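Case study 2.
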Amino acid sequence: MSSVPRLFVRRRPSRGARWLLAGALLITPASLVAQTPPPSVTVAAFGVDTTATDVGRIVALLRAYLERPQAVDGEDRAARETGLWSTGTELDEREGDLTRGMVYQGFRATIVGVTSAGAGDSVYVAKVLYATADSARTRISPLALQRLFAIRSMGAPYGWQLATPLPRITQHWERRSVGPITFRYAPGQRPDPARAARATEFVADVARRFAVAPPERIDYVVAGSPDEYHRALGLDYFVLPSGPGTGTGGVVLGDELVLSGDPAQGEAYLHELAHLVLRPLGIRNHLVSEGIASWLGGSQGRSLPQLADALAAFQRDRPDVTLAMLLSDQVPDGGQAATVALYATAALLVEDVHRTGGMAAVRELTTTAAGADAALGAVRKWIAGEHASEDAWWRALAARRVGRNE
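Prediction:
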C-alpha cells in the first residue's frame, strides 16, 4: 500500500482508512503531516518521575520534539539538524523518525514511561501513548504505543537525542544482500533465495518499464506479520483492521525501506517494491498508485486473475453498487469485500489502460490528480466511446478478465 490520507477515528472507516486498512497500516503523506497540528503532550501521573535528572531531561526532549510540526520537509531533517534526533546510525541519519507518518495524526500524546534500556545510564527507552477519549472518558480510542530510544549526547540541547529502534532491534537478525536489496530476517524467518532473486529482477524491470532510476539500495525487513515489523519499528501497539484476511500486510517507509509481514510472500512482496521503485514519479492519486502496484505485483498475495475473480464475485453479490460509490467509499456495509473490490478495480483499470495505449498511456495515468473525482475522470477519459457508461465498463472489465482467466 502507499501513503493515504490521515485517519480520523470514526465508527466506519473513511475512504482513506479503507485504503489503509487493506494494507494493514496507517500512513500519512508528508504534505498532510506538515499540516497536522502538533499533539497535545502530557506526562502520566505515575511511572514517570521527572524529578530524576535523566528522566526530566528526556521528558523535556520528548516535549520539544513532539510539540513541533512533524516532517515539515518530508524527511524531518530539522530534528536532526537541531540535535533533537540522533544521526548515530545510517537509518537515523537517512530517515530519522520512521513512525512520523503513522502516529502524528493529532491524537493526544501521553508520555507513559522512561526506563533504562539496560546496564549503565546512557540509553533509555521512552514510551508514548497516542489516544483520544470522549468527555466522559467512557470511550477511549487508542492509535499507538510508540517506543523510542533516548541516547545520551553531551553536545545536544537536552543532553539526549531520540533514535529509531529498528537498527538496534534488528542488529542481530540474519542479513543477506542480493543486488541492491539487503534483507533482514526476523527470528524464525528463513531466507528464500528464489524469492530474493525474483525481487531484485522485479525492481530492475519496473524501473526499466517506467523509465526511472532503480534504487541504489533497499532495506527490506522480512517478518511474520505486521505486528512483528511494527514492534521492530518501535510500535508496541498500532491500530490494525479486524476480521478475516487482515493478519498480513506490508508497507514502504521513506525512500529505501520495505516491511514485509506476509510469510507467503517473504522477500517477494512485489506490491510494496513497486511502490518504492515508483516513488520518484510522485503519483498523487491513490487509486492510480495502488492500481499500478497491484497490476505489477498483486495485492495482499492475490494475483491479477484472483483480483478479477474477487471483483466479479463482489459485483454479483452487490448489484446495487456503482463505480462512483466504490471510489468514494459510499458502499453500505461494504467491509473487506469492498476494499478488495477497490484494489481489483484499480489494478484492472491500469491493465485496461495498458491494453488501450501501452506503457505511454500508463505513464500518463501517473499524472492523475488526487481524489476520487479525478480517478473517475481518468476512467471516463480512457473508456470514451467504448462503453455507454463507466459502470458498464466496470462490470465488463471484470467479466472480460475472468473470461481470460478461464
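The CA atoms of residues 79 and 85 lie 5 Å apart.
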